[in-house]
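## Example record

The block below lists the input lines for one assembly entry, exactly as stored, with component labels intact.
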Amino acid sequence: MLPLLEVKNVTYTYSAGTPFEHKALQDVSFCLNRGEFVGVIGHTGSGKSTLMQHLNGLLKPNSGDILLDGKSIWADKTSARKARFRVGLVFQYPEYQLFEETVYKDIAFGPKNMGLKDDEIDLRVKKAAEIVGVSDFLEKSPFDLSGGQKRRVAIAGVLAMEPEVLILDEPTAGLDPEGREEILKNIETYRASQNATIVMVSHSMSDIARLTQRILVLDDGRVVYDDTPAKVFDHAEQLLKMGLDIPEVTKVFLKLRQLGLDVPPVYSIDQAVETLNKIRGGDRHA
Amino acid sequence: MLKDITLGQYFPGKSLIHRLDPRTKLIFLVVFIVALFLCSGWVSYCVMLFTLSAAIVLSRVPLKAFFKGLKPLLFILVFTAVLNLFFTAGEKPLFTLGFITVYPEGIIRAVLMLLRIMMLVMATFLLTYTTSPIALTDGLESLLSPLKKIKLPVHELSMMMCIALRFIPTLIEETDKIMSAQKARGADFETGSLIQRVKALVPILIPLFISAFRRADELAIAMESRCYQGGDGRSKMKLLRFKGIDLYVFAFAAVMVAGVCLLKNWGL
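Predicted structure tokens for the full assembly:
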């Protein structure tokens, strides 16, 4: 099956030819399939944000290519802008991009740029607002909302374009636990309703471990691991060496193993409960 | 693209020029500009050009930076040169093209004018390239301090200038980010009529203004929580002090101006 989005040997260098030259991405390749939830982790400066901006054609790779449905998004002058309607990107702190008088108008900005008809725009705005739970303040000014509400309005602004691939750069940064949970739930709802591909950059390993089916690990502009959460967190020691964190439960179980207890590596709470129950059960029999 | 702006850029270094007192550099720049306008003949221009070249070499700032800075002024430079070339009357015309007559004097004048503007701009660049914004505002504050007697808020003005300079790169970065975010929502800044393009700026300008005000607010609170209350009784970590080398520079400035005046008298 043809992957939805394919990144082929992408290399990108900032300020090439100056003393400030910096290789942000080096020969990065991977595929995204329809309906997948992919997590991207890597420490600050590993090239995550640069990579995200390549996926929707905001940055043009120095070499390599990005294929959407098998066709290069750099094929001609207008294809990159068209690709942005199918690959939605939510930046870090997206609430800073709000500018319209009402929440409704702001969410409608994207669909309007797509050239949709008014009734279609209306439909999409209401649907997107519903997904993130801001239907009650469509006529309010976005600047009168709380931080978490603003964030959700900004995300709705991208959802309203109904992208097939939704990329989120740390969507929960700077929110309280309740706000984080809410937004993560909204994202999952969108994925399920549209069979959309989600790519989420996050520093919260437990969120990544819990939600995603696949994890890309970036280090120094290269993809180091591209595998299921279970397999990626198997490399706990290497991840820690890269300056990355691992889920708290994984740490606890790693320590247990160091203390001489024979436990498998674990990366989610459910797994941990299961493993512990097994051990307890085993003890009883013994 | 936006990141290429070099306005107010500082090239850190430890050269002779970097180590001069900022006040010396400011005064010398003013003297240099005055002398530049006193110049009339080839010889005096050569003196000025030699002075500037020596200073640039001493500063160890790459020459490329100076020419890069001149690029935005290309239009003004060409405009001035052309005007002087065509509208300077002399005795013997060199050639005539339709209603335009070019005299040898015109060519000389055009070249000298070009030289004058270029030297003026490059000397100013030399100041900002070799002086950190903090040193520059410190120097300015110190030089303007006599004006405190007539109740001019000198410290506040220089603090404002310092903050403004500090935030230029931050705002440029912010603009870049907002532009990308709106582009991701399908905004189009590159095509369309003039009116459409101006309208396309609204989604950039509103968030930019809001974030600038937010930053200003945060900065004000941060300053107040560190007990900032204006210039009264405020001490400095780095006191400005004239050193021996500054005296030499002043002496050189005096010699330069005297020399240019003498040359002017002799018609050179």
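Chain A has a mean pLDDT of 89. The radius of gyration of chain A is 21 Å.
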